[in-house]
Amino acid sequence: MKITTEAGERHVLAVTVDNEAGILAKITGLFSARGYNIESLTVADISADHALSRITIVTSGPPAVIDQIIAQLDRLVPVHSVTDLADGGAHVEREIALVKVAGSGDKRIEALRMADVFRAKVVDTTLSSFIFEITGTSDKVDRFIALMRECGLVEVGRTGVVAIARGAEAV
Amino acid sequence: MTEMSGADMVVQALVDLGVDTVFGYPGGAVLPIYDALFKHPTIKHILVRHEQAATHAAEGYARSTGKPGVVLVTSGPGATNAVTGITDALLDSIPMVVLTGQVPTTLIGTDAFQECDTVGITRHCTKHNYLVMDPDRLGPILHEAFYIATHGRPGPVVIDIPKNVQVATGTYSIPNRIDHKSYRPQVDPDAEAIAAAIAMIAAAERPIFYTGGGVINAGPDASAALRQLVALTGAPVTSTLMGLGAFPADDDQWLGMLGMHGTYEANMAMNRADLIIAVGARFDDRVTGRLDAFSPDSKKIHIDIDRSSINKIVPVDLAVVGDAGRALDALIAAWADKGHKARDLGEWWRRIDGWRATRCLDFPEKKEDGAEIMPQRAVKALFDATRGMDPIITTEVGQHQMWAAQHFHFDSPNRWLTSGGLGTMGYGFPAAVGAQIAHPDRLVICIAGEASLQMNIQEMGTVSQYRLPVKIFILNNQWMGMVRQWQELTYESRYSNSYSDSLPDFVKLADAYGWTGLRIDTLGELADGIQTMLGTPGPVIVDCRVAQLANCFPMIPSGAAHTDMILQPNDIVGTMDDEAKALV
Ligand SMILES: Cc1ncc(C[n+]2csc(CCOP(=O)(O)OP(=O)(O)O)c2C)c(N)n1
Ligand SMILES: [Mg+2]
To answer: Record's family (chain A) (predicted)?
Structure first.
């Protein structure tokens, strides 16, 4: 017998929650318990009184599964709202990566030149290394990291995706 | 606003919330609360013999009264022992509040004596949980916890209270009105959805109501509304295991339970219907059978208070989010408003009568006095003997549970207490204890399997201590019958570890606990034995020996469609392919 799984499309969910202990465990636990994917997850407190956090989750699944994920998140007691950013039309997505490259000679020059093309900033340097800061869509960050692999990549740190809908309204 | 200790706040809040009974077991981390209880005689504390039993007793209390069940246990092992009952309450949507002691805040995270991460462990088996770090928060949290346990889709809530928070003083405050900042379940259905639903119901030629535990949870008025709507429309009704009692079983429009061990007529009608009206039921896999063959030609309306239940398993045509009772009321009003009259469903009923004619619940049996008792016969005899006594019936889990569901009939809600979602062996007896505490003068019977009963048999002591007249009626087939049945059907009768070996002498056990024990061996002794049980004051255990190898039919084998029911023993195959074996 073979076990098969259905492919799905990528969705970005913005979830507003009470900023309380255990909420992140509750949300990630829901995903693991019900077998949903998490491709990326970011969380930070976003209100002046520190009462609310926004969690941005990138997930994927067939439409029915995405609907279930939203309904399951929505019924958690500390969850205020769940928005599928793909639903409301256009949205902006960004991710930051810190990329450390070590090397000398041509590789070092090449790394710097490509960083320039990608508008990555140099945030630290030694005689034998750079740390680049790059901001963009996950796709752009992926491409930059792939190029840096050829130029002495030694370490990467990524934030995961944050996203927000275009236009004047809040979620 | 008054200054008091955390422990006193707990008890004060329980009093303010109208709690009359707490099921619990003491230990180091809850001693301050036990001391506060000592001074508060208005709250009755029922001392169980194992914390799991406290949770099931609280469920029995809750299901039979509609009020939340309350549990009090200590930290560490007290809390972990409660986890099964908490999970059971989550899956069957039972309102419950569990108070757990915790090590002092200063020791949390140090692997202190009897420390466990209670909020971590119960995070995914509660509707919500709290760790209270500040006594000033206790009052609001307790009140909020009861609100969450009982509003929207009910469920268990855990409040973990460190010992120093119980000892420290703070101000106790009662929130005026719980206006929860994020938890606001929709109880009133959308008017548009109701209008659309009524139009669909009025137009249907082959409608069926498929009702579940949500109708019971919505209170007795919801059951009354269901009857009214069913009468108005003339449609047939079936129900899940959890929903039994919401619709009277002696009504002509009742088709019996549906699903794996449901009736042939209920399952066939679901399969052939052109409209399913699901009310407070969640299309569980035990109900739907093979999904791609589930009711292929019907439109589906799903009324549920939990939006995540809608389209979870079966895509529906119309969702009505709201309380089952309010939705049913709204449907009745809309029906009258539009001036609908019941359609002539004669053709539909003729087909249903054809399925009824298979008499799928009949079973072969010998009739002479010395014959062995068929388990179905024992349930029927118990039902006949208790007619008019309005008994509360609890069950354990297994074949006996299904036979009870098939052959014991109810005409009102809150009389049938069984573990449906989690299927917890060991539920039935403590649930009977909880129901009996809530209804001291009612007849409460636990229909048990000899294997399940042993999972919480220690509660015989609790029953003796509180002089509860609980009756346990064991369908003793000396097997974990349901496991044996699956092994017979799926594993060519390789009976691996399903024999109930080394059973206690239940009559002697009864004696040891100060109960009355009796044994029924043959068909000729059945009626008298039951009468003796009913006529004996105080707790009674009946060891009713039944046919060992009887199987529970009808049955939809796992992975099969509603139309592929096994009706009789000789329809059986001894093996199954891997796809079917992989299904639970
Ligand atoms: C706690 C728990 N463990 C295991 C099971 C699996 N199980 C389901 S029914 C059953 C056998 C029950 O035997 P018994 O109580 O004698 O009832 P019978 O089926 O014989 O009527 C078992 C082991 C379960 N439901 N619950
Ligand atoms: Mg048995």
So the answer is: Belongs to the acetolactate synthase small subunit family.
A to B CB pairs, distance under 8 Å: 49
CATH level 2 (architecture), domain A9-84: 2-Layer Sandwich (3.30)
Q: List, for residues B176-235, the tens digit of each pLDDT value.
A: 777 788 899 999 999 999 999 999 999 999 999 999 999 999 999 999 999 999 999 999
Residues in chain B with CB shorter than 8 Å from the CB of A68 are 308, 311-312
Mutation site for B-interface testing, chosen from A77, A80, A81, A82 by largest number of B Cβ within 10 Å: A77
Domains in chain B with CATH codes: 2-172 (3.40.50.970), 191-356 (3.40.50.1220), 375-552 (3.40.50.970)
CA distances from B483 to B151, B486, B545, B551 (A): 37, 5, 18, 10
Strand partners, A45: A53
**What confidence score (pLDDT) does residue A3 get?**
74
Cα separation, A40 vs A160, in Å, equals 5
**In angstroms, rounded to a whole number, what is the distance separating the alpha carbons of residues B142 and B126?**
15
DSSP state of B374: P
The one catalytic residue in B114, B465, B478, B548 is B114
Structure tokens at A76: 């958690």
Residue B536 class from Cβ within 10 Å (0-12 exposed, 13-18 middle, 19+ buried)? middle
| B46: phi then psi, degrees, rounded to nearest 5 | -100, 115
The residue extents of the domains of chain A are 9-84, 91-164
| CB contact (8 A) between residue A29 and residue B315 | no
How much of chain B is in helix, strand and coil states, percent to nearest 5? Answer: 40, 20, 40
Ligand nearest to the CA of B423: 1
pLDDT of residue A154: 97
Nearest ligand by distance to the CA of B449: 1
Question: At B482, is the secondary structure helix, strand, or coil?
Answer: helix
Nearest protein Cα to ligand 1, atom 1: B425
Active site residue B487: no
What ipTM was reported for this prediction? 0.89
Among the partner-chain residues A21, A33, A75, the one whose CB lies closest to the CB of B307 is: A75
Stretch 142-161 of chain B: residues touching chain A, C-beta under 8 Å = 148, 152-153
The predicted-structure confidence for A3-35, as pLDDT tens digits, reads as follows: 777 778 999 999 999 999 899 999 999 999 999
Contacting B with CB below 8 Å, chain A residues are 1, 17-18, 21-22, 25-26, 29-30, 33, 64, 67-68, 71-72, 74-75, 77-80
Mean pLDDT across B277-281: 98
Considering CB atoms only, which of B120, B308, B311 is closest to A75? B308
Q: Which residues contact B37 (CB under 8 A, 6 or more apart)?
A: B11, B22, B43, B45
**Cβ B394 vs Cβ B428: under 8 Å:** yes
What ranges make up the beta strands (E) of B18-95? 21-24, 44-47, 69-73
Strand, helix or coil for residue B476? strand
**What are the pLDDT digits (tens) for A102-152?**
999 999 999 999 999 999 999 999 999 999 999 999 999 999 999 999 999
Using CA atoms, how far apart are residues B394 and B414, in angstroms rounded to an integer? 10
B181: annotated active-site residue: no
Pocket of ligand 1 (CB under 6 A): B 396-400, 423-426, 449-452, 475, 477, 479-483, 500
CA–centroid distance, residue B243 to ligand 1 (Å)? 21
Architecture of domain A91-164: 2-Layer Sandwich (3.30)
Tens digits of residue pLDDT in A70-90: 999 999 999 999 999 977 679
Q: Is the pLDDT of residue B578 over 90?
A: no
pLDDT in tens, B491-504: 999 999 999 999 99
Q: Is A98 exposed, middle or buried (0-12, 13-18, 19+ CB in 10 A)?
A: middle
Ligand 1 atom with minimal separation from the B400 CA: 21
> Which residue in this structure is represented by tokens 């990549």?
A153
